[in-house]
Amino acid sequence: MELKNIESIEALKNVMLNGNEKNGFYGDGKSIATIPDIPIKHSFADQLYVRQMNLKKDHVIVGAVHNHLHVWFLLTGKVIINNNGEKIEHIAPCYTVSKPGSQRIILALEDSIFVNVHKNPTNTQDIPELEKEIVSMTIEEYNIKYKNIWVL
Hints:
Helix content: 10-25%
Oligomer: single chain
Strand order of the largest sheet: 1-2-10-5-8
CATH class: Mainly Beta
Shape: globular
CATH superfamily: Jelly Rolls
CATH architecture: Sandwich
Structural class: alpha+beta
Radius of gyration: 15 Å
């Protein structure tokens, strides 16, 4: 299955979750996964949280739904990003603004360093607390939190 042909983030997420017992698949779809091969570096500045992912070539990430407007940077490498169905190749160095409700599939075409910069108004360094603030695990969760849409 090629990322270029995946039309639905949910479809890819389901394939990955169904293969979760296999080597190389991580996550339960309910919380941010800790992935041994993808180190995350956490840095803090006044009211900012910086989250750096080091991706190896061919790594595929299904991200959570971002709750807030924020900036992300590709410092090194090349990736294809499917962001809610829009597929764009990014070559470092580059950056873009990510809108609330964005959920990405990232395919690393080369070893890459990917950085998100999020607001952190309380200056907390509690990562689980920050993750609850900055992401939702599903679009339904995001809609309930931020758009007051009732899901029955």
